[in-house]
Amino acid sequence: MTSTSAAADHREGYVPFPEQAAQDYRAAGYWAGRTLGDLLRDSARTQPQRPAVLTDGGTRTYAELDAAADRMAHGLLALGINPGDRVIVQLPNVPEFATALFGLLRAGIIPVLTLPAHRRAEIEHLAAISGAVAYLIPDTLGDFDYRELATTVRQAVPSLRHVLVAGDPGDFTALDSIARDGDSLPEVDPSEIALMLVSGGTTGLPKLIARTHDDYAYNATASAQVCELTPDDVYLATLPAAHNFPLACPGILGTVATGGAIAFTLDPSPEAAFAAIEKHRVTVTAVVPPLAQLWSAAVEWEEADLSSLRLLQVGGARLAEVNARDVEPALHCRLQQVFGMAEGLLNYTRLDDDDELVYTTQGRPLSPADELRVVDADGNDVAPGEEGELLTRGPYTLRGYYRAPEHNARAFTPDGYYRSGDLVRQLPTGHLVVSGRIKDVINRGGENISCDELEEHLLAHPAVRHAAAVGLPDASLGEKACVVLVVTGELPSLGEIKTFLTERGLATYKLPDLVRQADSLPITAVGKIDKKALRALHS
Ligand code: OOB
């Protein structure tokens, strides 16, 4: 494929918002006609000397970040990478992430945001479906050498013309060596694809989610409002920066749009992250539930000063109520539950919500224009307050995965609602309680056991630190219920667990058949419990 046709082909396999919906979102002001690059430009104009990025080595002002993004954009274009081309970005939480991201966005080049934990299978797949022309990597991370990965990936995906390395380039090109001055940058259309996110699904290979400038800018700025961000806020990217949550909920983009400062930590452990919070006087960060739990416990032994922290956002998987109640007393900041998805819809508990809503729900929709339906297995709306599958569409929710027509036929209703696969109940306040995934159930002899429900009960056991329930193949039952526990002290016996669960009022058919012990639970690239890996480990 020549570069000219590559530049025009990015819309092939893209499912746009219907014209009428787009008009409505513009007319209502949700889509403001600004690009993601403009968000940085605006902050750099109004407050050039304020800090934009805080690093161990010093501060980068808005004027500096703005200029660095422009120079990066010119450098990328000078390599022959054209507006509309896709570039695989696999950078960890380092300050170069911000420069590279804004450089690509400014040039109208489409970053495909992969996670540092992705390996050959995922990267080759994402590079092939996106038709990427370049691959941005760090040199090494821990003992993993991304340059070796790039060498392998390039052999399999011939469209990858360039490998750019943040750090020691080896045989490739150093990312910082390409930056250069230039005259003018291409006009970027705000209704065009800005970037691509990778779906978080734990089954099958990841899918690509194309987000437009209009929809993603709204995602970030409306989220910043809900979190009451101001230019005095300091946001710490703790989760991998390429994930929707730390990127735009409100994350890096929402902070830049507000004129606050961002900082990065490569290591989310309490030791490293707490040191970063103390050093940069961090006010807001986002974590997954296992980290929230670990951080809440770690204040016992970590000495760092966390007094700057005002808001801890927790999402990505369900935060058990027992753990939700621990966060505020331990960390002395407000807890916010966030139920979101790379596909779009975001739900937040609000800062002024009643405590009980904050501890027991996963928030309510970000936008007045978010449309939600809760449906039964036949696709009919359930009665208000009843459990069902969440379907949604709205001003920042995709209408189809990129280049995935067959999957789209199943994942969307004919009228454009995305079938989330999440089981929820909606309270009269609009808040959602997530009760599990449609598929995260154990089918034990025809009875369905919700893994989330079982796990929530297990976590209430004083010896249990982490719990995961999985169905394992069984000749007579089809599936049997196995619970894998990380415990403090001794592993309770199966009998003890059954008695404990029965005393909590759990139905007999939901009691586990097996109890297994683990030192830790396997996690996905962003830190959620990885059920697929767990099932493989314990089968
Ligand atoms: C976030 O995005 P993804 O794309 O990695 O994963 C989305 C899925 C949801 O469909 C749901 O199954 C689960 O992750 N999930 C939650 C949850 N937040 C996400 N399940 C229960 N409780 C929650 N609070 O994970 C994501 C994107 C933006 C903001 C926050 C999380």
From TrEMBL:
Residues 41-402 form the AMP-dependent synthetase/ligase domain. The keyword Aminoacyl-tRNA synthetase does not apply. Residues 453-528 form the AMP-binding enzyme C-terminal domain. Keywords: Ligase. Transmembrane segments: none annotated. InterPro entries: AMP-bd_C (IPR025110), AMP-bd_C_sf (IPR045851), AMP-dep_synth/lig_dom (IPR000873), ANL_N_sf (IPR042099), ATP-dep_AMP-bd_enzyme (IPR050237). GO terms for molecular function: ligase activity. Pfam families: AMP-binding (PF00501), AMP-binding_C (PF13193). Signal peptide: none annotated. CDD domains: 23DHB-AMP_lg. SUPFAM superfamilies: Acetyl-CoA synthetase-like. This is 2,3-dihydroxybenzoate-AMP ligase. It comes from Nocardia rhizosphaerihabitans.
